[in-house]
């Protein structure tokens, strides 16, 4: 007789969990320091303008914004169970490149039925996870032509994405509270440059010349943060949809319902172009019956 280990259901219940609830403690007004949200950041493509990959001539910066309670009580446990089911432990780091290339810990995905099952279960986590996605796609070819190779796509995208984040937090009446923005360490020099740019933006060099209460946190990949791993999975599909908008992209179809958009929950998956998903340099409209210079994914989904 073959004995099998326990397979863990990713979610204990299919019930939607309200994550925006007002808490009253004996009628007292409690002064809070931190917002209800935490932000995880990742990128796709490199930010160099000296050598541009013709197959992927973009840099994408993606921000995944999670309500802390939903993140802690639903998302982290689901990802942990996925890891236990497929690896037997939870120290493995989900990485889009290695999953796609079936490398390292993910070599077992070369077996197609197993790969399809794994991708389906990972997709179910992404679909059931209530997070807000905001991103900037920098077209490096157009950028280098218009602004020169001295520009930094990462800094440009960061400026744009932090403004989107500010707009979202204003909508939630939490723009006055400190929000932590977690990025993956890239190297001592790169991290120092990024922190300097981040502080510059937050100190007032932004469209509204406002002080932004954002705090950047650098995390090593070895810390195995669930939020960083999910952010790693979303950036490339956004870039591919921009480059090849006519090509089937199931990952993007799932993600577009997460993108910050006009219209709130009733219009998820619509109205996100130039709201939660922005392209730089801005696209130039042609005649009414012609597409824009580059077609980008079309700004507020469910904010949980």
Quick synopsis:
With 304 residues, the protein is of the alpha/beta class. It has helices at residues 68-87, 96-101, 112-128, 140-147, 153-171, 188-202, 226-243, 250-255, and strands at 34-44, 58-67, 131-139, 178-184, 214-219, 277-280.
Features:
304 residues, alpha/beta, Nucleotidyltransferase, domain 5, six-stranded mixed β-sheet, 6 strands, 36% helix
> What is the rounded distance between the termini?
46 Å
Largest β-sheet summary? 6 strands, mixed
Give the low-confidence spans.
16-23, 286-304
DSSP summary: helix tally = 8
Apparent shape: globular
* Count of domain modules: 1
Rg, alpha carbons: 20 Å
CATH topology: Nucleotidyltransferase, domain 5
CATH architecture: 2-Layer Sandwich
Describe the 3D structure.
- This protein has a six-stranded mixed β-sheet with strand order 5-4-1-2-3-6, sandwiched between helices.
- By secondary structure, the chain is α/β, with parallel strands linked by helices.
- It starts with 33 loop residues before the first strand and ends in a 24-residue tail after the last strand.
- Helix 6 (188-202) links the parallel strand 4 (178-184) and strand 5.
- It contains eight helices and six strands, in the order ββαααβααβαβααβ.
